[in-house]
Amino acid sequence: MIKLRIAIYTRKSVSKENSESINTQISLCKNYFKGSNKFEVFVDEGFSGGNTNRPAFKKMMNMLKLEKFDIVATYKIDRISRNIVDFVGIYENLKKNNVKLVSITEGFDTTTVMGEMMMFILSAFANMERENIRERVKDNMIALAKKGCFTGGFVPFGCIVEEKEGKSYLKISDEKLIQLIFSKYLELKSLYSTQKYLLNNGFDSLSTRSSLGRLLRNPIYCKSDEKVSEYFIKKGYHIVGSANKKGYMTYGKTANYPTLIVGKHKACIDPDTFLKVNMLLDENKETATKKESKVYWLTEVLYCPYCGSKYVLTNSGRNTYYVCQNRLNRNSNELGIDKNKKKCKNSRYVNAEFIEKKVCLLIAELEDYSTYESFKNKVKKDNKDDEIEILTNTFNSNKKAIDNLVDKLMLLSNEAATPLTKKIEELTLKNTELESKIYELRSIQLDNINEIDEKEIVNSIRNFNKLKSNKEKRENARKIFKKIIYNPYEDSIDMQLP
After folding, report:
1. 336-357: buried (b, 16+ CB within 10 Å) or exposed (e) per residue?
2. Residue 345 above 70 pLDDT?
3. Beta strands in 173-272 (DSSP E)
4. Cβ 304 vs Cβ 346: under 8 Å
């Protein structure tokens, strides 16, 4: 008979009365197995089963990874863990290392079909418990916000976080500047004009119109009011609490359950002003989506040759320029910039009209089929698979980290759980951004599958310079090119075809 290598794990809490002694547990485990087997005993005396932070248990799990054992035997399952989520995770590790688990007094033996079935049931309960923990975290965060506590994330512009008795509270520290920004937007009726006013008067903290727009949209500055709450209900928000003229707190927007909570911090913008500003923003947004722009048809295909980032539009005076996005707005995340990435050396501002005319001439050259064939044979097709794989791996890594943090939360008090909750929020936000980027890349792939055949590309080239609508130009430019890579220092264009 083959000798089995068996790890016997025993544990006893010092506070536990009338339980089996360590020696009894060991003896019963050895007697369970017939034949001549090799045993190694791991003992944790005086340790709780509420977590896995036990020295002998850790040593055993490390030895399992080195393929030292065939079976882990224990007197009862609760000797391994009293936490179902921890236990299922431990079992998955055992299974990954081809190690069976046997509980000698409960008939729990994963070498049998019945034992495997029990594990499926326990796994289902563990998944349910994880979801319950997530729901409790959400409820806990909302409860904290209702008490006036700051629940983590980015600190809004013009605000500070104060610590009191182990909890964080938000305070608007620059009321006058916030009020000035709201009143100026109502006066000038334009994000561009308001931003220009702020820059000209030395307020350079809001570096982009998008960041200015986010400030004006943020209900944290607004005195809570029934009309404001109704406005956000129409936007899809769930409202918690009754209006009390204090500021609002937001939660869950990135996790698809946007919640507006009536907080306790002093707000500085009256409800009517906030509603007027936001209705004007809504109106201007609608107008902007209907209005054609002479500079928008290259934004999705024009790339920097130095860092591979897209060129983005920026205004200077009355002119519009394309600039490498890795040169602009590195203090915010609105363009999806990797802040760890070295700032691009391409500092040139490319006049939008100049580069558009240059691309039009290039397309005119491609109307000659022999020229098109020559270009097609020189360039390589761009593939998004590698980028999607990298982003997906990062997403899965973050998701695993979130699950691990959620599992640990149930062992901690509310106060002790605060750092973990903040970390979960940060990772969830990152994964929302990653999901959006992956979706964007897959959409681009689907656009290419849907399928731009060579005949359609050739037709797009021949018709391009006849088009009047900038929307049509943009659509056709994306059919013709995957990327246009423009080097402003050499005034040269490279390109990638679909």
Report:
1. ebeeeeeebebebebbbeebbe
2. yes
3. 238-240, 248-251, 259-262
4. yes
Asked whether the beta carbons of 482 and 497 are under 8 A apart, the reply is yes
What pLDDT is attached to residue 292?
A: 44
Determine the Cα–Cα distance for residues 228 and 403; give it in Å rounded to an integer. Answer: 36
CA-nearest of 158, 177, 168 to 220 is 158
Tell me the C-alpha distance between 478 and 447, whole Å. Answer: 10
How many CB atoms lie under 10 A from the CB of residue 94? 19
HSE-up (13 A, CA, CB side) for residue 201? 11
pTM (two decimals): 0.41
Q: How many Å apart are CA 162 and CA 150, to the nearest integer? A: 9
* Encoded amino acid at 213, one letter: G
Query: Distance between terminal CA atoms of the chain?
Result: 64
Our separate counts of H helices and E strands in the chain read 16, 16
Q: Are 122 and 150 in contact (CB under 8 A)?
A: no
Place of tokens 């008067």: 201
**Per residue in 140-152, pLDDT tens?**
777 776 676 777 7
With cut-offs at 50, 70 and 90, classify the pLDDT of residue 195. confident
Our measurement of the distance from residue 297's CA atom to the centroid of its chain's CA atoms, rounded to an integer in Å, reads 29
Q: What distance in Å separates the CA atoms of residue 64 and residue 382, rounded to the nearest whole number? A: 45
